[in-house]
Amino acid sequence: MIRLGLLLLILPPLLMLGLYFWELGDVRACQLDGGHWDYAAGVCRDSAQAFTPWVERAPLIVNGGMLASVAGLIVCMIGLARRRQG
Q1: What single-letter DSSP state applies at residue 86?
Q2: Which of 22, 38, 43, 76 could form a disulfide with 49 if both were Cys (CB 3.0 to 4.6 A apart)?
Q3: Nearest to 39 by CA among 57, 22, 21
């Protein structure tokens, strides 16, 4: 039970960080080429684009990841409580 909780607690934030930094690499490459990143479309453009936060572009990933982490924390706490009792 503790292992499942730790997986749920740690894996979603690592996945979100990986996806975030993957996109950040594309943004930096676009800026180095002299372009402007269009966050809504995910492409490099010649004109300046408005910034769109990641939580608006991928709400299921962000909210689902945070929910899974909280669920993992609760499962870990339950697993630790059961281990201590028995």
Answers
A1: -
A2: 38
A3: 57
Residue at token pair 């936060």: 53
Structure tokens at 83: 């281990």
Sequential pLDDT tens for the chain (86 residues): 889 999 999 999 999 999 999 999 999 999 999 999 999 999 999 999 999 999 999 999 999 999 999 999 999 999 999 877 76
Q: Which amino acid is at 55?
A: V
Contacts of residue 1, Cβ cutoff 8 Å, sequence gap at least 6: 75, 78, 79, 82
> pTM to 2 decimals?
0.79
